[in-house]
Amino acid sequence: MDKKYGVYICTGCGIGASLDIDALSEVAREEGFPVKTHAFLCGKEGVEFLKADVDQGINSLAIAACSRRVNFDVFSFDGCLVDRVNLREQVVWSHPRDQFPALTEEEKAEGTKFDRVQMMAEDSIRMSIAKLKQIKLPEPYKLDNYTSDVLVIGGGVTGMAAALDVAKAGYKATIIEKSGALGGFAAQMRMQSPVASPYEDLRTPVVADLVKAVEANANISVKTGTVVARIAGQPGDFTVTLKNPGEKHPFDVPYPLPDEMKVDESGKELNAEQQFEVYKKYNEGKEDVLKFDPEGLKFGSVILAAGWRPAKLEGESFAHLGIGQIPDVVTNTEFEQIAAKGKIVRPSDGKEAKSVVFIQSPGKGEDDGDFSYCGSVTSIATLKQAKYVRDDYSDGKAYIVYQHMRTPGLAENFYKSMQQDPGIFMTKGEVIGVSRNGSGLMVEADNTLLGEKLKIRADMVVLAAGMVPATADDPVVNLAYRQGPGFRDNDIFDKYADSNFICFPYETQRTGVYAAGSIRRAMTIEESMEDATGAALKAIQCVESSNRGVSVHPRSGDMTFPDFFFQRCTQCKRCTEECPFGALDDDEKGTPKPNPTRCRRCGTCMGACPERIIGFADYNINSIGSMVKSIQVPSEDDYEEPPLRILALVCENDAYPAIDVAGMNRLSFSADVRIIPVRCLGSVNVIWIKDALSQGMDGAILLGCKHGDDYQCHFVKGSELASIRMTKIGDALKSLSLEQERVTQKEVAIDDYLKIPEIINSFVEEIEALGPNPFKGF
Question: What Gene Ontology terms describe what this protein does at the molecular function level (predicted)?
Answer without folding.
Answer: 4 iron, 4 sulfur cluster binding; metal ion binding; oxidoreductase activity
